[in-house]
Specification:
Rossmann fold; five-stranded parallel β-sheet; alpha/beta; GMP Synthetase, Chain A, domain 3; 3 domains; binds ligand 6R9; 30 strands; globular; 686 residues
């Protein structure tokens, strides 16, 4: 991949931390990188010691590739560390969760209240037969009870498997059975775009497909309860919705079971390597993989990264917009932030209900200081225009984060300028369900950021770039150069820029411990591609300063007339054109070139489709990257096929462009989108 043309990535200036930010930062000494590199296991032990252990570990790391055990012999409880220890430290009255419902209802829970409620839920789960080691499937809307159910599982030593509340009955069915869940916790419904997602009805459908391990179903009443009823921000009344069919003996109402439970529910001391949760990741092809995470190492790394990457302070109001159905909601709503005793917003609904300013109204209303969201959301806000941000007071914000896909410099700069008022550092964090916690990221008090680059591995993490033959071609490691330079240190080390495959070359505490029930697949998917290193499946460029520029999935690299071109680079050039709001690029089979570039674009408000606009956009890409990257096809569309976490399903776009029948669309947020696209593409062709 070394012949990738010079791209729009890296053209923009860099942003060193301001003196004011650095002066107050949780970590400002670039020396932490060298210290951690010299003794990574010791570095992580230092963090683990800041958690509360029922019993200390005797061995920090046992590494029998590809199987790692961290803090062996230690015992701890994740819920205790996220809740009880803050209450015991006198922070019982501190607000933990601010539940902002889509209809406008707000419910606050202090740490003491969370402890009591989580204890009641824990006792309720026990009453339903859940014990240590059992799996509980959770299919709920993003209300405060969702994180509390997760913590209740951790409290009693059960494992949760959260399935995103937007998934279909088939997806839920498959995940329940793979995990062998004993109990399903769901809700009557959740609010989304002013309507109701009928969770109980869908759960019933899933169970009707056959889930032999499920004994009981606990149903939280969200939409039907007074609290969940439409509030001041909603215009409509509660719509009619289907609550499914009540099955006596199987189904239990939350209100009939949870409130009457005792608040006395001891935290089970768990082995450091005890199963904490399973989370399914679909990837773009194949059967979903149940990613396994355990307790001590996972909690250590989520705790550490939250504290340093988000620079969390006791008085911050933090808001990670991810749903707990995704790993981001596990690591950066529940475990990392709560282990740090944070006050955070948990928002139930969509960003455009009742209006497109909902996020900014929410920031203003709760005085949010730290916002962590995804590039797909940021680009959507850009497309909507600045009027929605301008009418809200965003001055409480002091730090912005991005996660989920590569953020193109254009969106980064917009986020920094419009949302951050040019005063907030932007942390672009690269990681995966499998890595459990942030791996490549700026540290906001140290790193000079470059828009579009996730910059450096977190201290104690070692990443590298490998070539196609599995050779480590990393030009400079650690790359303190740029960092130290920004801090006024020695002249930075530099090396030649290279493009290749991202690798993680030493074990890390929150790494996945396997794929549930399939150790062979674990080896094959992650540990067979690169010699001695973990293979995340992403491409990366490493620039002259040793900064990592994540390029998306390896399978998203096109081979056009013998040149490797990353779909992400072309997308980045497309959205750099003023008319383009969002873009998705794929390579379609081409007789002569091998692959031809097909681009699907959404125009910004105020721009009309037409041959002139399209020619100008294509020319812009050629100008930015080179003629080789000029798209052959350009289709203007209203919507792109995305998974519900915002990842573009390129496989489906390839099906469209190559005229095939559409593959599996069950994980799409809106399955109608591809059918429309297919018609559009085919009429453009014909
Ligand atoms: C946390 C999460 C993982 C994949 C990952 C990569 C992409 C995530 C990114 C990023 C570039 C970033 N990704 N963050 N790419 N820059 N900052 O998203 O987990 O849903 O498992 O997805 O997302 O391709 O491999 P998950």
């Amino acid at each position: 991949m070394s012949d990738t043309p010079r791209t729009v990535l890296g053209d923009s200036p860099s942003f060193p931390p301001s003196d004011a930010f650095r002066a107050r930062a949780n970590v400002a000494d670039p020396g932490v990188y060298a210290e951690a590199a010299a003794d990574p296991v010791g570095f992580w032990e230092g963090w683990a010691r800041r958690l509360d252990w029922a019993e200390p570990w005797h061995t920090a790391l046992e590494w029998e590739p590809p199987f790692a055990k961290w803090f062996v012999g230690g015992r701890l409880n994740a819920c205790f560390n996220c809740v009880d220890r803050h209450v015991e430290a006198g922070l019982g009255d501190k607000v933990a969760l601010i539940g902002e419902g889509e209809p406008g209802d707000v419910r606050r829970f202090t740490y003491a209240q969370v402890r009591d409620e989580v204890s009641r839920i824990g006792n309720a789960l026990k009453a339903l037969g859940v014990g240590k080691g059992d799996r509980v499937c959770v299919y709920m809307p993003m209300v405060p009870e969702l994180p509390m159910v997760m913590l209740a599982c951790a409290r009693i030593g059960a494992a949760h498997s959260v399935v995103f509340g937007g998934f279909s009955a088939e997806s839920l069915h498959e995940r329940i059975n793979d995990a062998g869940a004993k109990v399903l916790v769901t809700a009557d419904g959740g609010w989304r775009r002013g309507g109701v997602v009928e969770l109980k009805r869908i759960a019933d459908e899933a169970l009707a497909l056959g889930c032999p391990t499920v004994e009981r179903v606990l149903v939280y009443e969200r939409v039907g309860s007074a609290l969940g009823a439409p509030g001041p921000q909603s215009t409509a009344g509660t719509p009619e919705y289907d609550q499914g069919v009540w099955v006596e003996g199987r189904d239990v109402r939350w209100a009939d079971l949870v409130p009457s439970q005792s608040v006395d529910c001891p935290c089970e001391p768990m082995d450091s390597e005890a199963l904490l949760f399973i989370l399914y990741t679909s990837g773009s092809t194949g059967k979903p993989k149940g990613i396994v995470h355990t307790t001590g190492g996972y909690l250590t790394q989520t705790y550490a990264t939250t504290q340093w990457v988000f620079d969390l302070k006791p008085d911050d109001v933090y808001w990670c917009t991810a749903d707990c159905g995704w790993v981001t909601g596990h690591s950066y709503v529940v475990y990392g932030p709560m282990a740090n005793g944070v006050t955070q917003v948990v928002y139930e609904g969509s960003p455009d209900t009742p209006d497109k300013d909902r996020f900014w109204r929410t920031v203003e209303k709760h005085g949010v200081t730290i916002l962590y969201t995804a590039p797909t959301a940021i680009r959507t806000f850009m497309k909507w225009g600045d009027e929605y941000t301008e009418r809200c007071d965003l001055s409480s914000l002091r730090l912005l984060g991005s996660v989920g896909e590569p953020i193109n410099p254009e969106a980064w700069l917009w986020y920094h300028r419009v949302i951050g008022g040019e005063r907030c550092p932007v942390v672009d964090t690269w990681w995966q369900t499998e890595t459990g916690a942030i791996m490549v990221t700026p540290l906001p008090g140290i790193t000079a950021t470059k828009p579009g680059s996730a910059t450096q591995p977190f201290p104690g993490i070692r990443t590298a770039v490998f070539d196609e033959t599995g050779r480590d071609v990393t030009p400079i490691h650690g790359a303190m150069g740029f960092v130290a330079c920004a801090a006024g240190g020695e002249a930075p080390a530099t090396g030649p820029a290279v493009t290749g495959i991202l690798a993680v070359t030493q074990p890390w505490p929150s790494m996945l411990r396997g794929i549930w029930g399939d150790p062979a697949r674990y080896r094959q998917v992650y540990w067979s591609r690169l010699p001695g290193a973990y293979f995340p499946g992403d491409g990366t460029r490493v620039d002259e300063d040793g900064y990592f520029w994540l390029l998306g999935r390896i399978d998203d690299v096109m081979l056009v007339s013998g040149h490797n071109i990353s779909t992400m680079e072309v997308e980045s050039a497309l959205v750099d054109h003023p008319a383009v709001a969002e873009a998705a690029v794929i390579g379609r089979a081409h007789e002569i070139k091998g692959q031809a570039i097909a681009a699907f674009v959404i125009l910004r408000a105020g721009f009309a489709p037409g041959p002139e606009t399209e020619a100008a956009i294509k020319a812009h890409v050629a100008h930015k990257i080179g003629a080789i990257a000029r798209p052959d096809d350009l289709v203007v569309c209203a919507e792109l096929p995305k998974t519900r976490s915002g990842k573009i399903m390129r496989r489906l776009l390839r099906d469209v462009a190559e005229g095939r029948a559409l593959g599996d669309t069950t994980t799409l947020a809106d399955p109608g989108v591809v059918a429309t696209l297919k018609d559009k593409y085919e009429s453009a062709e014909g």
